[in-house]
């Protein structure tokens, strides 16, 4: 996604880009796991990745943001809806 380098440079923040199950990066078999699980399987993958990152102790849990467009925007809406106390900001 072209906005990732911009976010990292413009905000001096860390960027976690999650290749969740059902995204094209995992192939057709993975895509076929998503129907009926949209908004749950992909959300869980994002939260698992975030949890792993936060366990390093290198990031401020009070300054987390989530951003996405297209399905990423849909996923952003699910993340802030299902985990309203996790993210300080969101953009879709």
Question: Could you characterize the architecture of this molecule?
Answer:
This protein is mainly alpha-helical. It is built from four helices and two strands; from the N terminus they run αααβαβ. It has helices spanning 3-11, 28-31, 41-54, 71-82; strands spanning 65-67, 89-91. A two-stranded parallel ribbon has the order 1-2. It is globular and about 35 Å long. The protein starts with a helix and ends with a strand.
Give the radius of gyration.
13 Å
Series of secondary-structure elements, N-terminal to C-terminal: HHHEHE
Q: Using the alpha-carbon principal axes, give the shape.
A: globular
Mean pLDDT: 89
Q: What fraction, in percent, of the residue positions are helical?
A: 40-55%
% residues in beta strands = 5-15%
